[in-house]
């Protein structure tokens, strides 16, 4: 995806400053686009309300443990008839969509101990095998 962005007002990069790593980092951060990660998965039959509650608490709690998460949306399928009988396949049960300032911030989250703990303790015990789908993309502001 190509998105044209302007260099922030008041930012000047002289020939001498071009070698200044701090200025280059500042410019790169200013031009970076936010990243959204969306993951969806099915929840297997027999999963208890307590397990769903633990999942909700675990995912929502990641924002306080991983400062790179700027915001998130967490949702569960409404199980409307069309979503359960769609010709392309049944809807997933759960969607988790955190937002990050940069790709690097997403990569911190991806391998963060708290994230791995939620996967192992809250998701793996209840996920319907073969239903996980995910994407990461840059968001236009």
TrEMBL record:
Domain Stress-response A/B barrel: 35-135
Domain of life: Eukaryota
SUPFAM superfamilies: Dimeric alpha+beta barrel (SSF54909)
Pfam families the record matches: Dabb
Assembly information from the UniProt record: Homodimer.
Protein's UniProt name: Stress-response A/B barrel domain-containing protein
């Amino acid at each position: 995806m190509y998105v044209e962005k302007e260099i922030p007002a008041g930012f000047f990069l002289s020939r001498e400053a071009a070698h200044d790593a701090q200025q280059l980092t500042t410019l790169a951060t200013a031009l970076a686009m936010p990243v959204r990660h969306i993951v969806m998965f099915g929840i297997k039959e027999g999963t208890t309300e307590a397990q769903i509650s633990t999942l909700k608490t675990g995912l929502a709690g990641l924002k306080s443990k991983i400062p790179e998460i700027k915001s998130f949306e967490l949702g569960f399928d409404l199980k409307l008839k069309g979503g359960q009988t769609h010709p392309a396949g049944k809807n997933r049960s759960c969607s988790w969509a955190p937002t990050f300032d940069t790709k690097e911030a997403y990569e911190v989250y991806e391998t963060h101990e708290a994230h791995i703990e939620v996967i192992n303790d809250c998701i793996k015990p209840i996920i319907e095998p073969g239903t996980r789908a995910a994407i990461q993309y840059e968001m236009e502001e």
